[in-house]
Amino acid sequence: MTSGHRPTAVIAEDEPVLARTLVRLLEQTWPELRIAGIADNGLRATDLALTETPDVVFFDIQMPGRNGIDAAEAVADDWPDERAEPLFVFVTAFDEFAVAAFERAAVDYVLKPATAERLQQTVARLKARLAARSVSPAAGDRAALMQRMQSIAAAPIETGERIKVIRAGVGNTVRMIPVADVVCFEATEKYVNVVTSTGEALVRMSLRELMSRIDSTDFIQVHRSVMVNASAILSATRDENGHYSLAVRGLQRPLKVSRAFGHLFRPM
Question: Which long-range contacts (CB under 8 A, 24 or more apart) does 163-169 make?
């Protein structure tokens, strides 16, 4: 955020009374914040955030159309390259979604009913993050940010035995899956889904940890939560909105490529 810039926010809340309450509390705790719009479902929230490109998005989680976590991921996937991504805050009555929210880089997770005292903590965190952006020369360079994120993700987080065969529990059976046979890895909330041409299996390990334990040179990242075996990619199709999807050998469904990695599939 540059000096003199008035911060903006979008609110996604399907309960009008709660939306008005949040607006009122934000006016008290952060008077300079401008509310650019309010959406009453997840689909509208995604569209509104991408249209207004605010600094902050406050998401409810349980909303019609698309839940707040999926909406936040959709916003991040389609965010314009020239803008720093918004800061996400989830305001919800359901504490069981906290882990999933923070896995999607949430700045804060506020339980309803929100109070002015609790929002003061949130606002302090948001202001600190926005201030840090203003002094970072690469804060608005999303391409450079993605390169740094990929470098961090690729760095080993621990030393340990290198994995050539993945042991995946399926019921009472342990499947022995050679890494070379893996079509893609998909991160979920607590597991990594190991996909091969003959099926899928879950392992209780983070994607970052798993990639640090295998020879990952044959895999490329196409989404914040998906690594694909490059040799299995057959084609990339671009739709009218500029999104790519991959046809992958041994996989019946297409794989979505997030906008941040779309450049990997542009014609040479």
Answer: 163/210, 163/213, 163/214, 164/214, 166/194, 166/201, 166/203, 167/203, 168/194, 168/201, 168/202, 168/203, 169/201, 169/202, 169/203
How are beta strands 192-196 and 182-187 bridged, if at all?
Answer: antiparallel
Separation of alpha carbons 173 and 55, rounded Å: 48
- Classify residue 145: in a domain, yes or no: no
Helix 16-29 × helix 116-135 angle, to 10°? 60
Is the pLDDT assigned to residue 127 strictly greater than 50? yes
Residue 140 CA to residue 199 CA, distance in Å, equals 41
Number of domains in the chain: 2
On the question of pLDDT at 122 being above 90, the answer is yes
Pairing of β 8-12 and β 34-39: parallel
Q: Secondary structure of the chain: what % helix, strand, coil (to 5)?
A: 40, 30, 35
Instruction: Give the largest Cα separation in the chain, rounded.
Output: 61
Q: Specify whether 173 is located in the same domain as 89.
A: no
Give the amino acid at 74.
A
pLDDT value, residue 45 = 94
Instruction: Identify the domain containing residue 16 by its residue range.
Output: 8-140
How many residues are there in the chain? 268
Same domain, 181 and 84: no
Per residue in 148-183, pLDDT (tens digit) is 444 434 443 344 578 899 998 877 888 899 999 999
Rounded to an integer, what distance in angstroms lies between the CA atom of residue 236 and that of residue 81? 20
Q: Percentage of residues in the chain with pLDDT exceeding 90?
A: 44
CATH number at residue 247: 2.40.50.1020
- pLDDT at position 162 is 80
